[in-house]
Amino acid sequence: MADDTTETELLKWARRYAKKHGWVLNTDEKQLATVIRGLARNKTRFGRQYCPCRLRSGDEEKDRAIECPCVYHKDEIANDGSCHCKLFFSTH
């Protein structure tokens, strides 16, 4: 089970990462908490912060692509205004 410290650290990391790229985090606090909780759970369970909205294959090499921030997030934000998990949002 992920602990509050892990969730707090991941939220701080996500805020810094979003700010660095000129994005914002999801303003829906419930949705934001759900994604952060999923990241923390995956980090605790698997040792890596896999995107909670994507399915792991079990192949560690392949699954690196879905470690948050996943390889898809920049294109998704540019094209859709947010990443698939609805963690990071464009400000435009």
Search tags:
mainly alpha, 92 residues, Ferredoxin Thioredoxin Reductase
Report on the architecture of this protein.
By secondary structure, the protein is mainly alpha-helical. It has a single domain, classed as Ferredoxin thioredoxin reductase catalytic beta subunit (Ferredoxin Thioredoxin Reductase, Alpha-Beta Complex), CATH 3.90.460.10. The protein is 51% helix and 7% strand. A two-stranded antiparallel sheet has the order 1-2. α1 packs across α2. The longest helix has 18 residues. It is globular, with a radius of gyration of 13 Å. The termini are far apart. The mean pLDDT is 95.
Present the secondary structure layout.
Elements: H1 4-20, E1 23-25, H2 29-46, H3 60-63, H4 73-80, E2 88-90
Antiparallel strand pairs: 1-2
